[in-house]
Specification:
Layout: H1 17-41, H2 49-63, H3 65-77, H4 79-88, H5 95-110, H6 117-132
Helix pairs in contact: 1-2, 2-3, 3-4
Amino acid sequence: MTFAAPALPGLRNRQGGLFRWLKRSSMMLVGLVVILAGILIAPLPGPGGAPVIALGLVLVLRSSYWAKRQFIRAQYARPRWVYPVRRLLRRRPEFAPVFWQQALRAEKMVLRRRRRPLMRLRKRMRRMWRRAFR
């Protein structure tokens, strides 16, 4: 008679499988908590909810195969919406360019062409850069 605990699914015949499963499960749980926090923060003024939700999605996508499959489906359906999240999932994510691109995209959706301060700032910076390095 043995008193061993029953093995969790997918943990048989793997050394360190329990640790890996605990790590993935805890990352998934933390990601879900961060997403919920982002949803609660979203109604407050400012863009506070969007980056928090994106961070939670990154944590969930790194730890769940099911979420990765759903993400790939969404990528085929709406590539322009999913591309920024894909850029944040890279090994060395580029946070500043992703958020800048999203700010420009949001500005384009909300404001008229004449009243886009971020677009004017970007053009002004580009001109200064070109003059400095001619």
